Prior knowledge:
Blueprint: E1 2-8, H1 14-23, E2 27-29, H2 37-47, E3 54-58, H3 70-80, E4 84-90, H4 93-103, H5 116-126, H6 128-131, E5 136-139, H7 145-158, E6 165-172, E7 183-186, H8 207-214, H9 217-239, E8 244-251, H10 257-271, E9 275-280
Parallel strand pairs: 1-3, 1-4, 2-3, 4-5, 6-8, 6-9, 7-8
Amino acid sequence: MSFFIVSGLSGSGKSIALQALEDLGFYCIDNLPAGLLPHFAEQLVATGPENVRHTAVGIDARNRAFLDLLPASLERLHALGVDYRIVYLEADEATLVKRFKETRRRHPLTGPDTPLMEGIRLERKLLEPLAYNPTIRIDTTHTTPHELRARVQDFASAEDSVGMTLLFESFGYKKGTPADADFVFDVRCLPNPHWQLALRPYTGRDAPVVAFLEQHSEVARMRDELIHFLETWLPGFESERRSYMTVAIGCTGGQHRSVYFVEKLAAHFAASGYKTQIRHRELS
């Protein structure tokens, strides 16, 4: 039985995530009081996984009065043998403020004496038990609703497969480092195709850029060393029953070098038997 707990900061896309799971056939409940988690799980166990195989519940700061019960509720789930997964969504403060101003929605923790920024920071603190070690953390700062929906569905689908799923993500440092990455590698020290005027319109998926990068021995050396590092340490995470990991590769603009490395690493590990996914943040 798949049991997902979807949480995160208001404005980060929790409703979209739950809708994406619902589209996959999950039985979804939004804004379930944290204290009711064990009781709900007991009902699911009594019903039997053949009747309710996929379930997701949304827990956030709207049920603030019940959040103190969250740690005990999670311990009770462990005692019941419920192997839950936590999906935690977040975004940077500037993005959250912009979203609330654009939609004119009211943040659940704001009030006459609590401005928006204070409400966002208070919510982050209240949700620390869920944010501490989630199964997957998704930073939606640079993510469109369509991309978020696809990513949640990819993660949920990967739960039904055997072994670890690797998401390889390219990004540009000038737009910030992905907060949801498990590993981050910087390839800005390598020759930059951007300074070749003929190559600027292309990306790291295009043959002219690939040819340019592969004529430099240091590119092949870094690629091989990254592969060796991941092959050495990924089995350790698999032994800890990690089913999903994000490997982020960054260059200056997220167009050439990082894209090339993501494509090459994903192809290598797919050939090695891993289920792989690719995301090019700045090309989306």
